[in-house]
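Board notes (copied after class):
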Amino acid sequence: MQKEIQIAQLITALQKGDVTAFDQLYFEYAPLLYNRIFKLIKSPEIVEEILQEVFLKVWNMRAQLEVDRGLKTLLCRIA
């Protein structure tokens, strides 16, 4: 529960353009997403490129993020 509150606070900060919040969300979710993509792709270089594209899309759509929706689900959908 505490982690969910922290993630919600980070998403709210990200919506306002907080780069530190973006970094924290990246470090929270990038390893999980990397592993999921790697299971499908099996190429570290391509996985890194996809990961960068996913988080670039998150940054670009930060104002539309919904705090009450799962960020992990959105990341997987984008990937």
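Comment from the instructor: The two ends are 26 Å apart (CA to CA). The longest helix spans residues 19-41.
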